[in-house]
Write a structure and sequence with these properties.
The structure is a single chain. Helices cover 67% and strands 0% of the residues. It is built from 4 helices and no strands.
Length: 76
């Protein structure tokens, strides 16, 4: 298990006492903290994204109301 027993107890207490909004906030907070730990490894990804930005792409959409068309045009 990736957590020690103390952390498991703390999370259990948060889940037990927290309401939906509290748990959603904690989820986002923990995801952001985990993402920040992975940020140094993201440098190769950034250069790969820059290289791929030079290639043309086709934007396809299907729309009845026009929302997808506007989103596709904005993406283009």
């Amino acid at each position: 298990m990736p957590l020690c027993s103390e952390h498991v107890a703390l999370l259990g207490k948060l889940v037990e006492d927290g309401n939906r909004d509290t748990l959603l906030w904690a989820s986002g907070y923990l995801a952001g903290a985990a993402g920040a730990l992975a940020a140094p490894a993201a440098a190769p990804l950034a250069s790969a994204l820059q290289a791929s930005a030079l290639r043309p792409v086709v934007v396809l959409y299907g729309s009845q109301t026009g929302n997808a068309k506007r989103a596709g045009e904005a993406l283009h």
